[in-house]
Amino acid sequence: MPGMQRLHQGVPDGCAGDEYVAAIKRGDIEKAAELSFDCIQCGLCATRCMAEMSQYHIAQMARRLRGKYLAPKSEHIEAQVEAIAQGLYDDVVEKLKAHGNVDPSTHEIDDEIKKLKELYVNRQMEPHAADDGWTPDDKTATLNN
Ligand code: SF4
Description:
The protein folds into two domains: about 5-70, no CATH class; about 75-125, no CATH class. About 45% of the residues lie in helices and about 0% in strands. It contains seven helices and no strands. Iron/sulfur cluster (SF4) binds next to α3 and α4.
C-alpha cells in the first residue's frame, strides 16, 4: 500500500492503523476489529496517509460490522433494547428532560440543571469488581424487577 511506511511517523505508539487496514483488505473483519480496538480515532495516521484513507473510519466500520454481524448475540441486551423501543423508560426520560437544557450561547446553569447534575453525580454505579448477579438498588432500569 503506498505510503504505509509513513503511517508510523508522528502517530501514537502502538497504533495498528496499517495492520487493521491490511486485515480489512484480506476480508478479515474480525481481525481488523480486534487490531483496531486501541485506536482512539485521533486521525494522525490519516494525515500521513498518501493514499488519503481515513483509517480511523475504517476501524470504526470494522468494529460496527463485527458488532452487528459477527459477535455473538447478547440476549439480555436485545431484551433491553426491545424494552427501550417499547417505551418502558419514556416516563423516566421525560422526568429527566423536564429539568431543562443548558443554553449553549450562555452556558448558564440554573437550579434545575444543578439538580440534574446532582442526580448524575450521585447515581449508583456498578462496582468495578461486581459479580454477574449485581443489580442496582433502584430497579427502574432492570427488566426483571
Ligand atoms: S486514528 Fe487510530 S490508528 Fe490512526 S493514529 Fe490515531 S489512534 Fe492510531
